[in-house]
Structure to design on (899 residues):
């Protein structure tokens, strides 16, 4: 068979011979006579063709390899790489779906009409006898008292959005922040509610806390104080206890400065990232007066303009709950101000920028339980916005500071167990006390330092 | 010239040989280059990726490493964005952590003494039949490898916070690795020991994995059932003692009483854990001894099964293998039935009709690879979360639109007399949260 294919070759090499005649005998006889490359013996020819075939195959093989390497000419069945590629694509699709706001089973909602700007927004039906109702309930339900061991029952409320953050680091710091709050609240007998539901479409964003606070107050009459805390605020003094006795004649405790508030009318005179509301009729009335600035759209934008004009230093943007509260308290001073306690003796809210770099100095000179600038109670990362894509500060600075604050606080918790972080930026821990056969001594020491009120208020 | 030396024929042969040799060398050289470029050639300096590929190719038959799913964010190369220091998306978390000091070298000879007698200053029982319980869970202090892993950890802890608030249980969320040798699933052992010793007021310690969620908010654990037992795990006696099955019990959610027995048990359980040769060898023993166990390093669950089988007389009496309700509920058989459960049953049952815990074994949302497809795991975790969350939101008159939806809808209008609203499940002011009224008042 092979010979037939190569007949043309043979023919050309034996050009001298007569066409059509098998040149074998002629070639053999010719090869014996001459030494040149003209007519060759058959054996030699076969060898030569085999050599050619070998070289052809070899070159073909090399070509295929090179092609495979460069442009991926692939004759085999889909291998692991394609499967991986498909998996990656599927995973990305699922992630994108999770991160979007679209509900998979939700039929397309008819777009809600804009709220009527003339109608006053209301958080719910007006309640006017809450103090009496609550008192009656408490007397009928003695097993759910509002004060335990002389301390009022406090409920810490915080929350975040139900969908994943725009970037994964944000979720990680939300997790660390909630762990931090769990630790503080466990040590101080405070309950936590972590909200992930948007209760009211119109009061979205920072306004979402208002309907939530109202709902919780009304559902839990046994709770004396509700403490709202932002998700970007962390406890940094695990020993400090709120001096609730100081507030027995007040209904709202918020961190701020008197002169900024009343003299300068600054928009940062108070901070609504961490504040306490008593569960009473006054608070419900305040919430009702506060909420109308919030509804999304025209109302919020207009309110924002009013506030920018009235408050010092406020940039132009839509109304936020903090500016609205300051505005409300200033314009309706007589109605509200005597029940508002503006706390500035300790850091119920501590602006992070002046605090985070001083942690090492604090650890050297002071001790937990002070709550003020020597050992801040709360470090609040305003402006960092780790859950979004962009913050007001450089990312590295924000995240490093949050990590430091978290570890600074965590050190106080794991000290009980004989451990400490290896540096304020390290997730690893080291032993600071050897294991012992009498672990309870340290437990008692720690417990005394937490419950010793006189020590914490010095 | 060559012809003159060795004769014509020889010369031609030599020439031919040389020609062949040249061709051979040329081809060999080209082959080596091409092979090096495409599939790598080992220690001649191959690109790392190729080594990984070869390794993976050879290990592909090992089920656990086979990527059933991959969760990786496709990094968009956008040169403009990399310069922006305020942008979170371009930040590399690995730049953040700094470890000061040296790694502790564990001294194997150092005797770690167990705890001494207890001296509680706070009562261990809040009421008769209501012990003080500490729920312990945890996760890594570093961000998850998977971009949505931390979000699911957050939802999981919120779910636990809700259950524990309703039932008066305290939570300890651990983010520290106490012992570098006992890493991975073994990390819970030194942590549990440390917590038992530091919290003498705690009667029961409830360990719960981070991938387990409460799906029955109204169910209270029947504490009086366990008054003579010290360890409660979900499992079946026959599967553990008779079949020696490695999934005869589950250590993803268990109760441990704070007592000397528990400390002794931890000491007996721990030896298979230390990372390295010990754990690998122990793994081989466990695979050999237990039914159905695949080949991998020793895990705490198999070690517990093995411990109970081999030392039944010592430990078996105080171990309660609970199967009347889902102290641990394997998600695969539960998640598709949520709608059916909502229609036919009600919270408070805790068993197959309305599981107490739905445990997402194998999903590993924090890592890059799991044993199940991404979509199924994450979507079902969302459903389980919403299923539990609905029971909490119901207290306040809300509910998720569907089990897959993040949005909520109102199911009860606001009223001006909120105290008269009936608490259907009885979990707003439940009996298990009652505070003992002081005799003097």
């Amino acid at each position: 068979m092979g010979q037939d294919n190569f007949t043309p070759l043979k023919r050309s090499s034996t050009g001298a011979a007569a066409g059509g005649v098998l040149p074998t005998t002629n070639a053999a006889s010719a090869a014996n006579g001459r030494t040149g490359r003209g007519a060759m013996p058959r054996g030699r020819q076969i060898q030569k063709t085999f050599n050619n075939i070998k070289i052809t195959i070899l070159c073909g093989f090399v070509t295929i390899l090179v092609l495979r390497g460069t442009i991926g000419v692939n004759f085999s069945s889909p291998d692991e790489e394609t499967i991986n590629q498909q998996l990656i694509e599927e995973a990305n699709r699922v992630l994108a779906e999770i991160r979007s706001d679209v509900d998979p089973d939700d039929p397309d909602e008819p777009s809600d009409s804009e709220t009527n700007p003339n109608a006053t927004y209301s958080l719910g039906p007006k309640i006017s006898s809450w103090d009496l109702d609550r008192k009656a309930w408490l007397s009928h339900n003695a097993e759910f008292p509002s004060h335990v061991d002389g301390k009022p029952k406090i409920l810490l409320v915080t929350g975040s959005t139900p969908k994943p953050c725009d970037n994964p680091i944000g979720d990680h710091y939300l997790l660390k922040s909630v762990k931090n709050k769990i630790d503080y609240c466990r040590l101080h007998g405070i309950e936590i509610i972590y909200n992930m539901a948007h209760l009211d479409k119109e009061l979205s964003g920072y306004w979402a806390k208002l309907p939530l606070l109202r709902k919780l107050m009304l559902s839990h009459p046994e709770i004396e104080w509700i403490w709202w805390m932002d998700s970007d605020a962390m406890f940094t003094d695990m020993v400090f206890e709120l001096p609730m006795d100081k507030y027995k004649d007040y209904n709202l405790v918020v961190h701020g400065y008197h002169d900024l508030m009343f003299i300068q009318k600054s928009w940062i005179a108070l901070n609504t990232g961490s504040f306490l509301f008593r569960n009473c009729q006054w608070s419900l009335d305040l919430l009702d007066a506060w909420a109308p600035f919030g509804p999304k759209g025209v109302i919020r934008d207009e309110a924002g303009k009013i506030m920018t004009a009235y408050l010092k230093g406020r940039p132009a943007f839509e109304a936020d709950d903090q500016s609205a509260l300051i505005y409300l308290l200033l314009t309706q001073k007589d109605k509200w101000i005597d029940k508002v306690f503006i706390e500035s003796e300790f850091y119920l809210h501590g602006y992070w920028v002046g605090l985070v770099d001083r942690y090492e100095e604090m650890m050297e000179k002071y001790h937990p339980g002070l709550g003020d600038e020597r050992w801040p109670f709360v470090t609040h990362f305003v402006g960092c916005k780790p859950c979004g894509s962009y913050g007001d500060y450089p990312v590295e600075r924000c995240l490093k500071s949050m990590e430091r604050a978290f570890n600074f606080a965590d050190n106080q918790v794991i000290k009980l167990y004989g451990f400490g972080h290896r540096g304020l930026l390290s997730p690893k821990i080291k032993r600071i006390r050897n294991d012992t056969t009498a672990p309870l001594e340290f437990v008692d020491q720690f417990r005394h330092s937490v419950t010793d009120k006189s020590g914490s208020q010095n | 010239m060559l012809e003159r030396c060795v004769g014509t024929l020889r010369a031609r042969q030599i020439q031919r040989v040389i020609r062949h040799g040249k061709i051979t060398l040329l081809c060999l050289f080209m082959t080596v280059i091409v092979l090096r470029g495409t599939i790598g050639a080992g220690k001649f300096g191959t690109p790392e990726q190729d080594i990984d590929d070869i390794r993976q190719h050879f290990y592909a038959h090992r089920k656990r490493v086979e990527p059933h799913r991959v969760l990786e964010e496709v990094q968009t190369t956008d040169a403009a964005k990399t310069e922006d220091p305020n942008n979170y998306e371009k930040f590399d978390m690995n730049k953040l952590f700094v470890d000061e000091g040296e790694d502790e070298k564990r001294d194997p000879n150092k005797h770690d003494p167990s705890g001494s007698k207890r001296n509680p200053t706070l009562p261990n029982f809040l009421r008769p039949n209501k012990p003080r319980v500490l729920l312990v869970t945890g996760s890594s202090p570093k961000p998850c490898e998977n971009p949505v892993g931390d979000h699911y950890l957050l939802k999981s802890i919120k779910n636990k916070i809700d259950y524990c608030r309703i039932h008066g249980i305290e939570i300890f969320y651990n983010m520290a690795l106490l012992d570098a040798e006992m890493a991975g699933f073994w990390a819970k052992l030194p942590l549990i020991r440390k917590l038992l010793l530091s919290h003498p007021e705690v009667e029961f310690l409830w360990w719960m994995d981070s991938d387990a969620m409460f799906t029955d908010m109204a169910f209270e654990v029947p504490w009086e059932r366990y008054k003579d037992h010290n360890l409660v795990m979900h499992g079946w006696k026959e599967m553990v003692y008779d079949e020696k099955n490695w999934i005869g019990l589950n250590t993803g959610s268990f109760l441990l009483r704070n007592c000397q027995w528990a400390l002794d048990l931890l000491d007996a359980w721990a030896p298979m854990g230390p990372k390295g040769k010990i754990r690998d060898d122990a793994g081989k023993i466990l695979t050999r001894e237990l039914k159905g166990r695949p080949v991998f390093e020793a895990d705490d669950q198999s070690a517990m099964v093995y411990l109970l089988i081999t030392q039944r007389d010592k430990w078996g009496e105080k171990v309660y293998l609970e199967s009347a309700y889902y102290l641990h509920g394997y998600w695969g058989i539960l998640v598709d039935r949520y709608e059916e459960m909502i229609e036919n049953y009600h919270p408070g049952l805790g068993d197959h009709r309305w599981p107490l815990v739905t445990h997402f074994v194998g999903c590993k949302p924090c890592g890059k690879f799991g044993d199940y497809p991404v979509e199924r795991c994450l979507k079902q975790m969302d459903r389980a979360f919403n299923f539990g969350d609905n029971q909490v939101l119901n207290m306040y008159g809300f509910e998720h639109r569907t089990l897959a939806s993040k949005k909520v809808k109102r199911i009860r209008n606001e009223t001006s007399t909120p105290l008269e609203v009936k608490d259907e499940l009885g979990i707003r002011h439940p009996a298990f949260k009652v505070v003992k009224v002081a005799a003097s008042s």
Observations:
- The mean pLDDT of chain A is 83.
- The domain at 129-446 of chain A is CATH 3.90.550.10 (Spore Coat Polysaccharide Biosynthesis Protein SpsA; Chain A).
